[in-house]
Write a structure and sequence with these properties.
Elements: H1 5-25, H2 31-54, H3 63-83, H4 88-107, H5 114-139, H6 148-168, H7 176-200
Helix pairs in contact: 1-2, 1-7, 2-3, 3-4, 3-5, 3-6, 4-5, 5-6, 6-7
């Protein structure tokens, strides 16, 4: 499926917003969350540029699933590190093991369900963390109500990650055409939610 001019515009806006978040939007945090958020938005920025330059064909690369896992893992790590101090070490271990597991199961050809199961578990835990934690913190009054938008962004990134993962696994939830049609809009909406939530939350 050929990328339309509108798709490229949406992706370009996503790239600019990601760059803004890296340069301006992340401040007054400790070192670990800054590193985690910078990696997440940096990967999003590079992914957007590659899509603009190479088109949807870049999604056919085997490395896409691995790279798409970095964003939710690092975002969720930043949130946990910032707001759940007692879980920092445990969650960091999960992030490292989860990323290694996804990389391993995608680097070796397997005929069983282990790659899909691994993706579902890793994306699921990271996605639920990004989705629920900001909403709970907002409801408890720890953060401003707008911070819940980070949670909505988490839901969107979880949907996007699973769509891509199952698509690459040869068991797409939606048709290829439908996934590619909604993907640029999904990335932009997700990025807007994240940046607005972090900015005003």
């Amino acid at each position: 499926m050929k990328m339309s001019a509108l798709d490229r515009v949406l992706l370009l806006i996503t790239v600019f917003l990601s760059a803004y978040q890296i340069v301006i939007g992340i401040d007054d945090l400790s070192t670990a969350p800054i590193i985690a958020y910078t990696i997440a938005f940096g990967v999003l920025l590079v992914a957007g540029l590659l899509l603009i330059i190479l088109g949807f064909d870049v999604l056919e690369s085997p490395i896409v699933v691995i790279v798409s896992t970095i964003i939710p893992l690092t975002l969720s790590l930043g949130l946990v590190w910032e707001h759940l101090a007692s879980y920092r070490t445990g969650y960091l271990i999960f992030v490292l093991i989860g990323f290694a597991a996804v990389t391993l199961t995608r680097s070796i050809t397997m005929q069983n369900k282990l790659p899909i199961t691994t993706i579902a578990i890793v994306h699921g835990i990271a996605g639920i963390t990004i989705f629920l934690l900001p909403i709970i913190l907002s409801m408890q009054g720890v953060m401003k109500p707008a911070f819940a938008l980070v949670g909505i962004g988490g839901a969107l990134i979880g949907i996007g990650g699973l769509l891509l993962s199952f698509f690459k696994a040869g068991k797409p939830i939606l048709s290829r055409e439908m996934i590619l049609r909604i993907f640029p809009s999904l990335l932009l909406l997700m990025t807007i939610c994240f940046i607005t939530g972090f900015k005003f939350g």
